[in-house]
What we know:
Elements: E1 34-37, H1 39-45, H2 53-66, E2 70-74, H3 80-91, E3 100-106, H4 109-118, E4 124-132, H5 135-142, H6 146-165, E5 171-179, H7 186-200, E6 208-214, H8 221-234, E7 241-247, H9 254-263, E8 268-271, H10 285-293, H11 306-317, H12 338-350, H13 385-396, H14 402-419, H15 425-437, E9 443-453, E10 456-465, E11 468-476, H16 479-486, E12 491-501, E13 508-517, E14 523-529, H17 532-551
Parallel strand pairs: 1-2, 1-8, 2-3, 3-4, 4-5, 5-6, 6-7, 7-8
Antiparallel strand pairs: 9-10, 10-11, 12-13, 13-14
Helix pairs in contact: 2-11, 4-6, 6-7, 7-8, 8-9, 12-13, 13-14, 13-15
Bound molecules: acetyl coenzyme *A and 3-methyl-2-oxobutanoic acid (KIV).
Amino acid sequence: MSMLTDPSIKYRPFEPVDIPDRQWPSRTITEVPIWCSSDLRDGNQSLIEPMDPAKKLRFFQTLVQVGVKQIEVAFPSASQMDFDFVRTLIEDGHIPDDVTIQVLTQARGDLIERTFESLRGAKRAIVHVYNATAPSFRRIVFNQDKQGVVDIAVNAATLIRELAAKQPDTEWTFQYSPEIFTSTELEFAVQVCDAVLDVWKPTPDNKVILNLPATVEVATPNHYADQIEWFCRHVSRRDSVLVSLHTHNDRGTGVAATELGLLAGADRVEGCLFGNGERTGNVDLVTLALNLYTQGIHPQLDFSDIDAVRKVVEECNQLPVHPRHPYVGDLVHTAFSGSHQDAIRKGFVQQKPGTVWEVPYLPIDPADIGRSYEAVIRVNSQSGKGGITYLLETEYGISLPRRMQIEFSQVVQGETDRLGLEMTAKQIHELLDREYLQAASPYALIRHRLQEENGTSAVDVEVLVNGETQHWRGLGKGPLEALVAGLPTAVEIMDYHEHSIGSGTNAKAAAYIEIRVDGGRPLHGVGIDENLTTATFRALFSALNRAARQSGQQAA
Ligand SMILES: CC(=O)SCCNC(=O)CCNC(=O)[C@H](O)C(C)(C)COP(=O)(O)OP(=O)(O)OC[C@H]1O[C@@H](n2cnc3c(N)ncnc32)[C@H](O)[C@@H]1OP(=O)(O)O
Ligand SMILES: CC(C)C(=O)C(=O)O
């Protein structure tokens, strides 16, 4: 068994809709659709182990918290557990006043009756009935011609209308899905739906939902949009119908298909959190909602703590969310690569609170969905100075000057190449400490004395040189110049920076110095101390020791 050299003998291409004056390509989504979660039905029916009642309730409560107002809670005629779950929601008062539950049934009399039984006492409910309409399903599943399939739908719609009339205390909404809509002849899909509408007789004040599923995704998303636009133009009573989308992700374009379907005129979207569902899943409601959010439109769903939502979904579905999943994956707000890190770090520096978000490579501010900036930059062998600098700045308040960033990134690069692993902020700090701050050989600064008079500094330092105590003295216009004057070797100061770390009584000074010894290669040193002069002297000794180490020379 292998791939066919000519797959056209086995697979048919999709036949496009002829709609040359299509309008959807030049539209933009400006309105939030009605969201309906199908997690507890379509999502649940696809799980290895369907949720138990406790998990279903937990999931339901999470959906309510997030702000979903229509929730397909069960297929009550499928099992006693699903039936009982609907009863629990109604009898134990779990359904908030602004939330409507929805249930699914096949277009079969006994199943519809059982469905209505499950809904006794509900304040409001959507009864969702479906039957497949595509040619292969008419032939393979129902062994019916077109009229036979219309009759299945009409009979079900009629029974639903009658049963609803017998439970007048419930505010009913009816929903019909021509299952496999995407593979159904459009004229026939409209014919079946119109037949159902003739039974339900909706009005603009009492609309029905026509849900047009990409039960199996069979074409590029533009074709789905064409199908939706064509349907919206041709269905009767358009003003009394909410056109609903229900996409799956077989070709990996469920989100795109839904977005284009909205452009094409749909009003409502069914899907599941993080895209759980049959096969490759239902469309991901979270991605759709946050795609709107990053266009500046509040989706009316709240993912301010997206990780808490993910935790519930993962625990209930017993399926992990992929680390690259849009918005929520563990790695989706993380940059490992050097140029990305550099741009992100610069973006953070320039991003002002309350202004338009412009941090490069981050389509959303992770803080808006409850993510910290900690994971935004992680360092491995693909990383550059930007990332290293960012981690030292954010985690330790250490701001390396630019030229030292370049030098230290090579030290880190050597280490990541050697280890072949990611380096955490702590490991990078330890490397900085080892390489610069602990550099105490051959010269170890024991103590110093500084006197200042009439703008001249006199420095006297006690130094341990290869185990032997030495005293160096120098004069200069400032402490650093004085110390340099007292050194036994010729040292040129190329660059110097200082800043404080922290504030108040715990504040420390960080000093960075770049020197050249005997005309050699410039090298940096770092010193950190409560006292700025001590930090500066330490930085100079750090640089001297690194220079000595690099040249392999013995101290004088
Ligand atoms: C795309 C979707 O996700 S649709 C939703 C699918 N979800 C589920 O099916 C989950 C819950 N379903 C179930 O547990 C079961 O299907 C039940 C309990 C509802 C029904 O089980 P069964 O009575 O054993 O029937 P089964 O599901 O095998 O259906 C087969 C019969 O129903 C018919 N049928 C299937 N779907 C429909 C439909 N939507 N409307 C009317 N008849 C249908 C088939 O033609 C077949 O009829 P036949 O026996 O005369 O050949
Ligand atoms: C019942 C319908 C809407 C369905 O789940 C599908 O077609 O995927």
